[in-house]
Predict the structure of Dehydrogenase.
Amino acid sequence: MPTAPRICPLCEATCGLVLTLDGSRVTGARGDRDDVFSRGFVCPKGAAFPQIDGDPDRLRTPLVRENGRLREANWDEAFDTIAARLRPLIEGYGPDALGIVLGNPNVHTMAGALYPPLLLRATGTSRLFTASTLDQMPKHVAVGLLFGDPFAIPVPDLDRTDHLLVIGANPLDSNGSLCTAPDFPGRLAALRRRGGTLTVVDPRRTRTARLADRHLAPRPGTDALLLAALVHTLFAEDLADPGPLADRTEGVDQVRDAVREFTPEAVAPACELDPGAIRAVARELAAAPTAAVYGRMGSSTVAHGTLANWLVDVLNVLTGNLDRPGGVLFPRSATAPAPRPAGPGRGFLLGRRHSRVSGHPEVKGEFPLAALAEEIDTPGTDAPGEGRVRALITIAANPVLSAPDGRRLDAALDTLDLMVCVDPYLNETTRHADVLLPPPPPSQSAHFDFALNGFAVRDQARYTPAAVPLEPGRMDECEIHARLVLAASGMHGAPPSAVDDLAIDAALAKAVTQPHSPAYGADPKEFAAGLTGESGAERRLDLMLRLGPYRLTLDELKARPHGIDLGPLKPRLDEVLKTPSGRIELLPAPLAADLPRLRAALTAVPEPGALQLVGRRHLRSNNSWLHNTPALNGGSNRCTLQVHPDDAARLRLADGAPARVRGAGGELTADVEVTDAVRAGVVSLPHGWGHDRPGTRLTVAAARPGVNVNQLLDGSLLDPLSGTAVLNGFPVEVAPLD
């Protein structure tokens, strides 16, 4: 049977696949042994690609609401409806009457990377909500303040490091996050084979923790306290040595003073860890020839998430491992702008605007997704810019399940004047849509990883065209987005190529004036005429490659379907720094101002018997969007409440029996799984479940719906600097169901 290469779009590992085809149907998927990055690795999600691609519940035509019911419509009718109803709302109530929600899958598609920024500019709205404030926003804030660029995220040099400290991450199940690394298990095994050390900090004994040389299981939510004690130990024992970074860093002495109170003995009661173990981790980190500290979801979605992410890189700086082979390095994506000359930049600002209802500060142009419901259901004036969100566009997002207090948001969505969704499924969020635009299956779309290559542990570039032709009646995902931009901007009826042409013209108008750009001094029209590609999206990719640091072309990528290896990560701090000082600013003012809140946490010791809830990942899941695949929904991928045996005995909870879980936002019932994989005082529920609402079309997911853990939250718990919802380490009460 014929085959076709395809980069997997189902998680951040971006593995290369080889698809087996029967006509236009995908019948098999295996790892691509010739892929320059993944070398044949594949996980259960990639192996399930045929089921995901051929899911009979995927929508094939647009849906339009008429007389309160969704009916099938053609594409012209769907976009006519959007244009006729959206522009009057924007013109009558102002651009901020429109809210835009971007979900996690956007980073896994070309369309999701290329067109939402154009949609934002075309509509003029400032009310942007994304999955970042349920995930990695603390990292963006921390590196933005440290280095001046919120996207300058250093990643562990997994293939060369001698010591890896993992905090709040479980890459054996997540496949890595903000660290694009196919075959994370193989890379950790290679670390052990070359005599390296793996230390894992997690309140659960995860698959990753079971591999560790040292596993610390602190009380959830105390990551920042533990990290502060590690930094304190480096200073107290004269182990801090930034090396060559010393001349490029300011604020080291201020950090020393700031962590003076966070001794291992001081944090031990709150963390529930032995002070000696904390000191041992700091000493091992400092003594390693090279080391990397890597933190993720567990240290981001907590009350002090930004401080924890800041302290991760403070440790990398103080041990001399930032921008160093074997430490943490800044990837150089093939589509990133060509490096500008070293020197001071504008830096990174927080809170340029504030949300209407609760006054949450904007971060990176976004407001907390946890605040979306109140922005819709809280009345305001009818003056432009002073009222509620009346229209909403969601793209690959399911915030009813992924954001706190889904019941309130569920009700709020019914009050909108217009809701437009780009999504292949009729799910818990899109069931409220007035217009639903379904993209085609992934086999019918081209793929390039714009965002994830910026977090990759090895520089490379790979492009795969659509594996099979577009099915009759479907519309290419990039065209859907382009026509949405036209309908929302008042240009409805113009050819979709006009959107891409305008984007190319704007990019070249800037590039030809920049001395460091490969297009400097060129004639924009001549440069644009030389671009190749069969679609506007391909031409834009070709432009970005040509303007990038390697000056590649789309034709070069097409000629090498298994990718181009651009080599291991290299030191390039001078290219990255954009702070006003042109140096690493180790203690930025916003972080210093948040430290008193962390000091107060030193005395926040829980009451005996108190329980805290944490989420968990599973190799067969990715948030809420793979539960409708039979091969992935089952086995050990279960929505159970994990409870330690001691807590189960104390609370009279039986394995397999239902228990009632109560939080500040509500309560739910879940089956108990008694296991010592969680430490005492901690219970765990996976996120992304709760597929039991009526009006959806998710046959497999609805048969095993699970419960929505985020319904235990009322949306009021946020990390103040990043606006990220506290999804881990919050208090709950658990009791057997009578």
